[in-house]
Amino acid sequence: MKCFGFFKDNSKTNKEKAAPSPPKTPPRSTTSSSNQVSKSSSSLASPRGISDLYKEKENSLRVFPLSELRTATNNFHRLLKIGEGGFGSVYKGSIQPANGQGDPIIVAIKRLNKNGYQGHKQWHAEVQFLGVVNHPNLVKLLGYCSVDGERGIQRLLVYEFMPNKSLEDHLFGKALPSLPWKTRLQIMLGAAQGLAYLHEGLEVQVIYRDFKASNVLLDEDFKPKLSDFGLAREGPTGDRTHVSTAVVGTYGYAAPEYVESGRLNVKIDTWSFGVVLYEILTGRRSLDRNRPAEEQKLLDWVKKYPADGKRFGMIIDPPLRNQCPLDAARKIARLADSCLNKNPKDRPTMSQIIEGIREAIEDSEGQNPEASGSNLVDSNRPFNQTGVTRSPRRVTAHQLPRPTANVNGVS
Ligand SMILES: Nc1ncnc2c1ncn2[C@@H]1O[C@H](COP(=O)(O)OP(=O)(O)OP(=O)(O)O)[C@@H](O)[C@H]1O
Ligand SMILES: [Mg+2]
């Protein structure tokens, strides 16, 4: 599912120019600076921002010439295209190690669409955030390429290759076997740990802002890693409760208060996490235009089958019904409901969510999925990466109504 508009903040866009050719250190993030500019009273006391942290680590990223990435992908050959999202195409490629010695490294190379300033901004945010973070549940950025030529700008990102595609592909793609219940829980546990690190484990609080099944990539052991940091933002600092931004994200995953007000804090990720918990429980997309009207919006539909109700079992993904203990499923639904509290303050922290998922995993221990005859995934077998990952039911990018209370004009 693609993101909705990030072309929103005209006031900001008109005032700022895209950075020229790629500086070794990308220019100071608009995120941190704008937060400080718009609320400057406590800016002196602000902790270091993401761009400060990036400066310390930038040398760990490789800067690739475009020619090297052309070679790596056989000139971006269509047969090496493994995915396509709202911001560009992703190719499988092979690069030489930095020191020129050893075996070639398989990588994923994302080439951003040429959509000018916003594309650059997205790329820039991704370089900065992924250049700073370091966690087993976050995808590794190996390097980047940035060229401003006569034929326009080229922005590329080079990531470690994730051989088992995305959680979205496994939950909704027809070609892949159904994921077992415990694998789904383990994936959500790892994803929660990645988000907890962003929210609670860094010097800077990071709001991911685009948590969804397609951004949870799976390694050879089905361990999850979050990808796509183009929409990530620094969280509020000091005694501020939120950052004001233009509204970006993906339909079906965005927290309602954020869509209405543009006010951003970490609890918008918690909301999106709750949506994905219901996706793994039901095997249904958060938004599915191909279903009957009353079933298109997952959150509306599941409300008819409350976690403590008699009919709850009816929403469980059919392939899971013989392998997932009802108690554990109810626990996950209750956890999802808490993430989906209307008031962000009532939503749990990621640490609390981790605890909740661990309990559900414990409740599921001792269950023998093999006995149920359900479709198991051999976790040691990577799936062949053939063809382009592109869901037939993806919605095209749209623009949401502008936030009404975006007084700061910060995007
Ligand atoms: N590091 C990677 N390793 C392997 N495959 C990847 C990697 N990054 C992306 N992909 C593949 O490319 C697909 C598209 O990714 P991309 O992030 O561009 O789009 P998306 O997540 O579907 O949508 P959006 O643009 O809203 O993020 C992914 O679903 C995945 O299958
Ligand atoms: Mg993505």
TrEMBL record:
Pfam families: Pkinase
Claim: Phosphoprotein is one of the keywords in the record: no
Basic and acidic residues compositional bias, start-end: 9-18
Region: Disordered, residue numbers: 1-49, 361-411
InterPro entries: Kinase-like_dom_sf, Plant_Ser_Thr_Prot_Kinase, Prot_kinase_dom, Protein_kinase_ATP_BS, Ser/Thr_kinase_AS
PANTHER family: OS01G0588500 PROTEIN-RELATED (PTHR45621)
Name of the protein: Serine-threonine/tyrosine-protein kinase, catalytic domain
Source organism of this protein record: Dillenia turbinata
